[in-house]
Structures are given as structure tokens and as C-alpha cells.
Design a protein that fits this description.
Function: PPIases accelerate the folding of proteins. It catalyzes the cis-trans isomerization of proline imidic peptide bonds in oligopeptides.
Shape: globular
Largest sheet: 8 strands, antiparallel
Protein name: Peptidyl-prolyl cis-trans isomerase
Structural class: alpha+beta
Number of strands: 8
Distance between the termini: 37 Å
Enzyme class: isomerase
EC number: 5.2.1.8
Helix content: 10-25%
GO molecular function, one term: peptidyl-prolyl cis-trans isomerase activity
Radius of gyration: 15 Å
Strand content: 15-25%
Length: 182
């Protein structure tokens, strides 16, 4: 999948929002700790940008929904996507969310909801931008940002066939927890 095919069309209300860099100090109730095979990643959730998405993500995290789920789509220089329990990119939790598009930029480290062509099709899949991806702005729901551990996100590997024909990867989420619950 290339960047152009990742962009979906559709209309949704755009809400002006502060830039990601203007976020307040960490709040344990709105901070996620993502454990990967290479280390921990801290994600600041943004209920001021996407309150319904943040609430749903926290609900799924508290159910341990994301533990063991693979990064089924990793595009070098673009993004790493996870959140599908089937590992195919076609599954989810079964609860669709209405888009909460804002002016928050899809820059390196932004965490945003994946969706299909329909703006209101976000479910449990989300992605972390590996590079600035401003062509996604106002078309996807930014609900968080990586505040530490981006070097671990950069090491997420996608599945590929080794010389022996076995699949090496893809990487999985070891665990995902709300900081307040740890």
C-alpha cells in the first residue's frame, strides 16, 4: 500500500485544535505504556482532540485487547499499524467510532485511528506515524502522540520470508497499559 492509496475520501467536520506540541504535562489516566520486544513506548493520549476515541482505546486497553496483536501493516518511512485481532487488517473490536477530525498534524510520533473509505469506520486499529505525513491531516483522527521510546517504534518489523521460508515477524504488542493502572 502506498501513501496515495492510504488516503480515504469522505467529508467530516474538522475541529480546530491546538498543535500536538502544545500538550499539557503527562496525566497517568491519559498515558499509555506500550511494551514492544525492544522496549517501552510512552503515548500521551489526547482527549482534548478525540474524547470518544481515547475513551474507547482505554476501554480496549483495560480489557487487554491489544496484548499479542501484531503490527500487520508497516510501511518504512510512513507508519506502523496494529489493532486487528485477526492480523489481516480486516478485523476489529466490532464497535465503529464517528470521526473526530481536527487540525492536529500527522507528524512523526502522532498516533491516529485507522479507517476504511468511510470517515466513521474507525474501530480498534490505529497507527503511529514513522515520519511526518501531513497528507493525512484532517482525514484521520489523531488521538495521541509518542512522547518517549520512538526508537523502539522505529524498530518494529513487518513479516517477511527468510531464506528458510519461515515468517520472521511481524512484531507484536507485548502489552499495552494505561499508566494509572500500573
Amino acid at each position: 500500500m502506498d501513501r496515495r492509496s492510504f488516503i480515504a475520501t469522505g467529508a467530516a467536520a474538522i475541529v480546530a485544535a491546538p498543535a500536538l506540541a502544545q500538550t499539557p504535562a503527562a496525566d497517568p489516566e491519559n498515558t499509555l505504556v506500550l511494551t514492544l520486544r525492544t522496549g517501552q513506548v510512552v503515548i500521551r493520549m489526547r482527549p482534548d482532540l478525540a474524547p470518544r476515541h481515547v475513551a474507547r482505546i482505554k476501554e480496549l486497553v483495560r480489557q487487554k485487547f491489544y496484548d499479542g496483536i501484531v503490527f500487520h501493516r508497516v510501511i518504512d518511512g510512513f507508519m506502523a499499524q496494529t489493532g486487528d485481532p485477526t492480523g489481516t487488517g480486516m478485523g476489529g473490536s466490532g464497535t465503529k467510532l464517528a470521526a473526530e477530525f481536527t487540525a492536529a498534524p500527522h507528524r512523526r510520533g502522532a498516533v491516529s485511528m485507522a479507517r476504511s473509505q468511510s470517515p466513521n469506520s474507525g474501530d480498534s486499529q490505529w497507527f503511529i506515524c514513522l515520519a511526518d505525513s501531513n497528507f493525512l491531516d484532517r482525514q484521520y483522527t489523531v488521538w495521541g502522540e509518542v512522547v518517549s521510546g520512538m526508537e523502539h517504534v522505529d524498530q518494529i518489523k513487518k513479516g517477511n520470508k527468510s531464506d528458510g521460508g519461515k515468517v520472521d515477524g511481524p512484531d507484536k504488542i507485548v502489552s499495552l497499559r494505561v499508566q494509572a493502572d500500573r
